[in-house]
């Protein structure tokens, strides 16, 4: 089965060692259900001028092309509480099982980047839990 990744993904993205996406993860969102900017990557937000104007993601371009998710609700709550601009966000529980891939990224062992193929519709099954 050939997976069609978004055309803004840089070469070698997602990483070859990313694992099949399976299970439930948590994402910080503005809306219930998530929509608009909630379902856009940093790279997509930059391309429409919504955020990250002039930012060079450098060697983090692949990570910025995916979605930040947490494998534990407590980790999402900790991040929301500790980062000022995130304090008003809601937390959505998402079943990432499907053709996407996932990998632990960043300093927090609970933080993962989830790369979704073009045809992915997993956002339709998420639930705001906090």
Describe this structure in words.
With 130 residues, the protein is an alpha+beta fold. It contains 3 helices and 7 strands, in the order ββααβαββββ. The protein has a domain at 20-36 and 67-128. The protein has helices at 42-47, 61-64, 73-82, and strands spanning 19-20, 24-29, 67-70, 90-95, 101-104, 111-115, 127-128. The strands form 2 sheets. The protein has a 4-stranded antiparallel beta sheet. A 3-stranded antiparallel beta sheet has the order 2-4-7. β5 and β6 form a beta hairpin.
Query: Given the helix and strand composition, which structural class is it?
Result: alpha+beta
Query: What are the secondary-structure elements, in order, as H or E?
Result: EEHHEHEEEE
Instruction: Summarize the main sheet.
Output: 4 strands, antiparallel
| Straight-line distance between termini | 36 Å
Beta-strand portion reads 15-25%
Put simply, the count of helices is 3
Poorly predicted parts: none
Q: Into which percent range does the helicity of residues fall?
A: 10-25%
Biggest sheet strand order reads 1-5-6-3
Specify Rg, calculated over alpha carbons. Answer: 14 Å
Give the overall shape, derived from the CA principal axes: globular
Give a count of the beta strands, DSSP E runs of length 2 or more: 7
User: What's the mean pLDDT score?
Assistant: 91
